[in-house]
Amino acid sequence: MPIYRNISSLRKELNGKVVESGKEISSLTYYDENSIGLLKIKDHPMFNPVLLSQVITSNSEILIPKVDNLNIPVFKYAIHFYVEKGEVSVQFNSIENKPVLNLYTGCRWNIRIFERTIDKLILNSTKEFILHIIVEKV
Questions:
Q1: Please, are residues 112 and 78 in contact by the beta-carbon 8 Å criterion?
Q2: Of 14, 16, 70, 75, which one is least surrounded by beta carbons within 10 A?
Q3: If we measure between CA atoms, which residue out of 82, 94, 88 comes closest to residue 118?
Q4: Sign of dihedral through CA atoms 20, 23, 29, 31?
Q5: What contacts 45, CB < 8 A, 6 or more positions away?
Q6: Is 133 within 8 Å of 81 (Cβ atoms)?
């Protein structure tokens, strides 16, 4: 998420915000500095859609991050599963939440969450397993 300074003598409107001459703005958009009178001051902090990336090999509970790396609250996200080996069951938020999602070797599964409805993944298996989980902000 670069930070720009308005080096023109004019007011600029970027992302719906007015940037006075000499002032700075951060933006998720990268701009061609020469064409609009902005000077990029720094590239950091950079946007990263990955909230969580883990390889799980034992029964566990995984908490879904509530903020991203820029400390912005996360309400929309996608959860991706890939089972490299074994079988594992996934429950969302509580062990009382039935039916469980059963995943097996070679299985890929994705879910998009458009409201913050899942805060925890509960993983259980009676066999050895290798499960890859990625949670990304959408």
A1: yes
A2: 16
A3: 94
A4: positive
A5: 1, 69, 70
A6: yes
CATH superfamily of 50-137: Jelly Rolls (2.60.120.10)
Q: Where are the domains of the chain?
A: 3-42, 50-137
Q: What is the pLDDT tens value at each position of the chain, 138 positions in all?
A: 788 888 888 888 877 888 888 888 887 777 776 667 888 888 877 778 999 999 999 999 999 999 998 888 999 999 999 999 999 999 999 999 999 999 999 999 999 999 999 999 999 999 999 999 999 999
Location of structure tokens 């397993």? 129
The DSSP annotation for 90-124 comes to: EEES-TT--S-EEEETT-EEEEEESSS---EEEEE
Which residue's entry shows tokens 């066999």? 127
Compute the CA torsion angle 1, 120, 52, 49 (nearest 10 deg): -30
